Structures are given as structure tokens and as C-alpha cells.
Amino acid sequence: MSSHDVSGLTMLGQNTQQPASPEEAVLERVPTPHAGLRYCVRFTAPEFTSLCPMTGQPDFAHLVIDYVPDQWIVESKSLKLFLTSFRNHGAFHEACTVGIGQRLVETLSPVWLRIGGYWYPRGGIPIDVFWQTGTAPDGVWIPAQDVPNYRGRG
Question: Catalytic site residue 52?
């Protein structure tokens, strides 16, 4: 598949059903258009939603995903569908945040990836979760995530 070949993709440009769960969601990838070049890709999901596994009440987070591609980049529509598949999924903040990062690593095999899950309060306190695959590579501009400490998150 060349960097512009999207023939293997099943969602891009298609009417796609929302996956019922993160396990059913398919993450798709395409070759990086800049093979051999180190750069950072950022996805921000300021309205991420999942369910508390104990109460079933909704939990909300501002997710920031940064990664340095190796051979693959994530196809953004598949990422959006994957993230929205958590809306009816009951899991603790830690399971959601780290699980999303691990799933992206499994799919993309990036040089480096980090995810920040900035969760709105549950029980009066926010529970923020951070995970990364290791040290950020030298020579790549990795901007700060800059999500404010909780005071309405913005």
C-alpha cells in the first residue's frame, strides 16, 4: 500500500456503523507519508465519554494522544469511532486511558506514544491518568499537553 493508497481501508469514505464496544471497534492504519522522518502527531478528544463500572453514570475526559510514527499512522475516522465506542463501556479511568494507548501501540508500533487522560471529577476529585511507552525520542518537538488542572478544565 503506497502512502496514498486507501484501498485497504473499510471506513474512510463509507457509511460506517458505530461499534457497540471498544472490543468490536477496528483501528485502521495507513503508511506514514513521511517514512524515515521523525515528527509528532497529536489527537485531542475533549469530549471523551465512558461509564463508571460501578454506578453506570457517565464519566467525561479530555484525552490528548501524542505519538511519533514509525511506518504507520492511525486513520482518523477509525480512531474517532474507536473512542466513541467507550460511550456505553463501563471501565475505570485507568483502564480506559491506558487501554486506548496500548491498543494504539498494538496497531501502529510507533516509535513513541503517550496519552494523557484528564478526567472530570468523580466523587469530587478528578482522576487523571498518564501513560507512555518510554522516553520521547531526541530531536522531535513534543509540545506540552497544557490541559489545566481542574477548575472546570478550561
Answer: yes
Q: Tell me, what's the pLDDT at 12? A: 60
Selected catalytic residue, list 40, 52, 70, 128: 52
**Active-site residue flag, 96:** no
Report, as an integer, the average pLDDT of 124-153: 86
Angle CA 135–141–147, to nearest 5: 80
pTM, two decimals, is 0.88
Query: Domain 29-132: which CATH class?
Result: alpha beta
Answer yes or no: are the C-beta atoms of 47 and 60 closer than 8 Å: yes
Q: Domain residue spans in the chain?
A: 29-132
Q: Could you give the CA distance from residue 107 to residue 121 in angstroms, rounded to a whole number?
A: 31
Q: Helix, strand, coil: what percent of the chain each, to 5?
A: 15, 30, 55
